Amino acid sequence: xxxxxxxxxxxxxxxxxxxxxxxxxxxxxxxxxxxxxxxxxxxxxxxxxxxxxxxxxxxxxxxxxxxxxxxxxxxxxxxxxxxxxxxxxxxxxxxxxxxxxxxxxxxxxxxxxxxxxxxxxxxxxxxxxxxxxxxxxxxxxxxxxxxxxxxxxxxxxxxxxxxxxxxxxxxxxxxxxxxxxxxxxxxxxxxxxxxxxxxxxxxxxxxxxxxxxxxxxxxxxxxxxxxxxxxxxxxxxxxxxxxxxxxxxxxxxxxxxxxxxxxxxxxxxxxxxxxxxxxxxxxxxxxxxxxxxxxxxxxxxxxxxxxxxxxxxxxxxxxxxxxxxxxxxxxxxxxxxxxxxxxxxxxxxxxxxxxxxxxxxxxxxxxxxxxxxxxxxxxxxxxxxxxxxxxxxxxxxxxxxxxxxxxxxxxxxxxxxxxxxxxxxxxxxxxxxxxxxxxxxxxxxxxxxxxxxxxxxxxxxxxxxxxxxxxxxxxxxxxxxxxxxxxxxxxxxxxxxxxxxxxxxxxxxxxxxxxxxxxxxxxxxxxxxxxxxxxxxxxxxxxxxxxxxxxxxxxxxxxxxxxxxxxxxxxxxxxxxxxxxxxxxxxxxxxxxxxxxxxxxxxxxxxxxxxxxxxxxxxxxxxxxxxxxxxxxxxxxxxxxxxxxxxxxxxxxxxxxxxxxxxxxxxxxxxxxxxxxxxxxxxxxxxxxxxxxxxxxxxxxxxxxxxxxxxxxxxxxxxxxxxxxxxxxxxxxxxx
Length: 736
Known about the structure:
alpha/beta, Nucleotidyltransferase, domain 5, Alpha-Beta Plaits, nine-stranded mixed sheet, six-stranded mixed sheet, 27 helices, 33 strands, hydrolase, RNA-binding, RNaseH-like_sf, exonuclease, RRM_dom
């Protein structure tokens, strides 16, 4: 009997947040197996990969985790099929992160790429005319003013613009003097940490045209740090403890340091200026200067190595050095200006990147040294570039991936890329072509009219408001002299309380309690409504609003959600109990697979509740009967079916602690306009769910299917993405 492939992942708490590198790791192993040095992903496991019938990635363009939970009831198919879910960090170039950089490979050059020598890296003069750098700038040398971004280019690439609604409160550098080709260049780079507010600056570096470091300062974030991102930022909690400098101090210093005709240089400089909350009129962005086809961008590390012969962002170092990155970007801009577009095009960076990747795949150690590279120091050594994109590897092994969508996903001929004008056309094409391809990326879109920033703002506010209402209960009435401490103790047995206030506007006092987890609020309604608390027989209910009319239906569907299958919630734990203590206490429960003890993401302290995941659903049902009323270390336990055990728990926590700033600088929404659009959007989402259902049912058994809400990352704000995944089995559901 043929073996079935199986996917295993434990996605609880911090483990449910997956980076693009980790997602790429999964897709590469699923597509290639142990060939081409592909290894099992670090965060999940695919059993019997060789028996996979194919890999299908469905991308829901410009949609985020926010959309999934706002239209949770409409996504009927997705929530009933895919058990494994994870939060995905948003990316400015999401599709490129899926199949890796440097896939712009022309088929006719593939064989040459495997045996390329340094002389073959130089393109013929006729080929130069097709180079995106020549198409953009021409062949002649120009002064630096020809390479500064126009106002339209800045808007298109989400630079902060003076007078823009999304830049209210931003500091203007007041560098308004006319730029000339002798205006001074300054390299700028920042490192950021994730805080309750979003991305905040924690280090700033500024270098002058001679490469001298003028500023290299640590900055204390205004909000509490949620993730230091030490691997990339190099910032640790210990480093920031003695720091007194604030963002406003850095803004003032930069204003004083920059001459009135200064030109700032950086790599994806828009992100740095957004984080600095500053506006500067004249910039050179090296990620756009070294142009590529279809909006793709070279990484700074690659450009520094290929053009300057410099190693930056070395793995041996803890995090990036912003001064090093600022200096590299500055030198790249100077090289481009001094040598001119034709010399830069002769480097043939695209071929250098893809040829080196394919050379690694075939174990070819050919030396790739482009002519005209004046600063590459070690001429006898090949540049050490990143590992090959797995789509390149599929091409080498004779498999041709499939890309389908409304926009150009790949212009290289590497993939069978097809454009369609509607989701219906994409679906029809996918039903025909997906069975013929080993790897497919299918992109659906709601259309630009449904992803405008004002709609996103309105949806964000509505979801936050509804979550708050679902986490909130009102209890009472109580006697005038009731004991608030005993009320808090009784309701605290249902789970962690975020806030408790006494309502005095009523004839008799009530209490308003907001919990940190959905299960706690539901448990309070179910177990304490009609009970005697603090000497009074009380009623427990949630707020009554128009948005809450479907609360019961939503709770029921969350219970039935396949992600919560076999998972129960347990409250009333003593905080002195460790995870090891709980493992020992619950060890007698049959088929217990995982115990997740939620922690405060700021303090790191665990809460008085936990989630238990069982291998079999019936074992979870049996455990509920055993645990309810169970006394552990003198504390009486309460339990129920889980509602938000995985990534949703973490997202709810972040929404509750974002102080209304989860969406960043999103424009305020006109609610009456939103209401009409939301009705249409609800219908669109329902139809989209049916499209995915039809495509999923057409897949062969043993096909890995990954559905991705990429998230939103723009100057108007950012929203986390969401991933759902599973391997289709005989029953049409994803196998775990």
